């Protein structure tokens, strides 16, 4: 029984590797021209540009929206890609499940988002 202990220890330590080694959120930098735009992620306010904030990972793509009074809002798709660290989970498949549920299975494709906001045309009188 004890001769397998080192192997079992390696298996348990390497479980859900992406969660352990890369975390479940990423710093994302949002900027706009003009600055001061409110940034929303799936309708939830994050703050005003320029902004660096932690964004939780999710296994699906999401929309980020920039809004500034007097300007047309702009939405961009935040895409994700496979987090290569999850491949270590080949040693223990339940780690994939943990990483997928927590969101660490993927990471954002980009860590910076920029938007140019255009003013609404003046109203005709």
From TrEMBL:
Pfam families: PEGA. Keywords: Signal. Residues 1-18 form the signal peptide. It comes from the Bacteria. Residues 28-89 form the PEGA domain. This is PEGA domain-containing protein. It comes from Neolewinella maritima.
């Amino acid at each position: 029984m004890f001769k397998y202990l080192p192997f079992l220890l390696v298996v348990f330590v390497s479980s859900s590797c992406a969660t352990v080694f890369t975390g479940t959120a990423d710093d994302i930098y949002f900027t706009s021209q003009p600055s001061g735009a409110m940034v929303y992620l799936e309708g939830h306010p994050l703050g005003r540009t320029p902004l660096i904030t932690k964004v939780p990972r999710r296994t699906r793509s999401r929309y980020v929206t920039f809004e500034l009074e007097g300007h047309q809002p702009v939405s961009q798709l935040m895409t994700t890609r496979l987090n290569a660290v999850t491949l270590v989970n080949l040693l223990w498949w339940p780690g994939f499940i943990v990483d997928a549920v927590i969101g660490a299975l993927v990471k954002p494709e980009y860590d910076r988002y920029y938007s140019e906001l255009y003013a609404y045309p003046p109203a005709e009188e």
